[in-house]
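Researcher: Next entry: Peroxynitrite isomerase (Nocardioides luti).
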Amino acid sequence: MPFELPDNLHPNCGPVAWLLGTWRGSGHGDYPTIEAYEFGQELIFTHDGRPFFHYMSRAWITDENGEKIRDAAIETGFLRCLEDGKVEFLLTHNTGFVEIWHGTADGGKLDLTTDAVARTETAKEYTGGKRLYGNVEGDLLYAFDMAAMGQALQPHTWARLVRA
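Model: Predicted structure:
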């Protein structure tokens, strides 16, 4: 699907402009403390002319035929675009986490590492992560590595999404 840059795109947002819009697709999750699973996902990045994007993601667990079994993770936040391709990502999750990420964007790639994680009293133990988003042949591919539940940083989820 063709993509056009908005007229009011803030100059700092240029390195992540390719993310704008709605993306849908499927992925896989795995972790030593979690049984492997398949999921569907929708990501939405919006922009209003200021140097940030609003981000919303929702996911659902699917069966072997891709049919929805139940709702899963929801996260929302702001991708703040600084000068020279530097970014900050603020995320809040329905599972009781708040994260601050920092990283860089360049050449259709967004590379992020957690700077801080806070969690509610009822949230599972989670200490940090790494996210990599990439524009691959016009699709959005991402990988999320996680350190949680006493485990070292390692792959947790990955997906391929297409522009809706």
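Model: Note for the record: The CA atoms of residues 139 and 162 lie 5 Å apart.
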